[in-house]
Specification:
Elements (H helix, E strand, L loop, with lengths): L2 H6 L3 E7 L6 E10 L6 E11 L2 H8 L5 H28 L6 E5 L1 E6 L8 E5 L2 H8 L3 E3 L1 H7 L9 H8 L5 E7 L2 E7 L7 E7 L1 H11 L11 H5 L4 H7 L20 H11 L5 H23 L6 E7 L6 H10 L5 E3 L11 H12 L7 H4 L9 E3 L5
Parallel strand pairs: 1-4, 4-7, 8-11, 11-12
Antiparallel strand pairs: 1-2, 2-3, 5-6, 7-13, 8-9, 9-10
Helix pairs in contact: 3-4, 7-11, 9-11, 11-12
Amino acid sequence: MNLKAIQRKDTRYAVGLAAGSSGYGVHAALVRLRGTGSALHLKLINCADYPFRPAFRARLIGGRADAREMALLNSELGELFAEAAIEMIRSAQQEGVDVDFIAMEGFPLAHIPPRGSDTHGMLLLGEPAVVAERTGITVISDFAQRDMAGGGQGAPINAYVDWALFERPERTVACLHLGGITSLTVVTPKLENVLAFDVGPGTYIIDEAMRFVTAGNSEYDKDGHRAAQGSVIPGLLERLLEHRYFERIPPKSASRADFNADNYLREAFDESRHHGEDDLIATVTAAVAENFVQSYTRFVRGQYRVARVVVSGGGAYNKSLLRRIEEGLKDVPFRVGDQYGLPLLCDGVAAAVLGNELICDTPAGIPKATGVRTPALLGKITPGRPG
């Protein structure tokens, strides 16, 4: 393993892997990277999604894992990451290039952000040593843990990636990630001025609502179709927007544990059980959208002159969700991420960028984004096989 040799290369090729907070599968990307920081140039060569089998996903997001089960999930997910990496390596071979490193963001089984106390931590699943052993290539992982060790929230860890990809000297843009958790990055010309925070629940809570109202027969609301058929329940919407997390001042981060069926939906749904299923889904979708509109109005509008909002994540496919957001911010231009040549669902690209910055000794921790005390190098290195 010679990281300095990789750093000195004019062009680096990387495989990026991520599981995302929704836990639907592994997102993998093969990218070409040149430079670092504001001089970073990235080209996406290939990307693919590798869905988890239903039984594995149920174990992953079930929330009832003991130590033995966590150990098994960590190893099994490592194998799934390795299989996705091998597919991307084959793609690189077809392009006639060698992969220099692999970067991965594991599945956040537990994320306890610091909220005015010393109690905090994060547990990511997906063993990087398995990936390094199966591929023989150096793996860079665990970006969020270093951020938290430095006093940060551990999320949104991809704020630096947004800046590296969308920074322009003459304008400010915002990146809206409609993933399992909704996050927002305000990309300013200067890195130290970047604002980012987790807005609150995203597609994960809509998925939870779908599983709840269909007794587990439906995993998600495809294209927002069910929400489009329903009507918003005013009382339920008001209740869903009362969560104390929404009043917190950035830097702040949220986890799936903050917003799940048991502690966020069940009691509220029980009080609205006389309403139709589509009405319940429409209301949860409206809550996700309205929370973003309120957060944008409170923390961004008036403080930044945003030229446009770039939308990515699985929620970008939810037409009902996106329509409600755009209706709530009619004066803000919205663009979808794939218009910039980036796949909406491929968090693997972000992992590759963060891995590149560690190799180049470029700090990717942003104090104003996560609350980390000083700009920090993010990630851990697991060596590949020698030779």
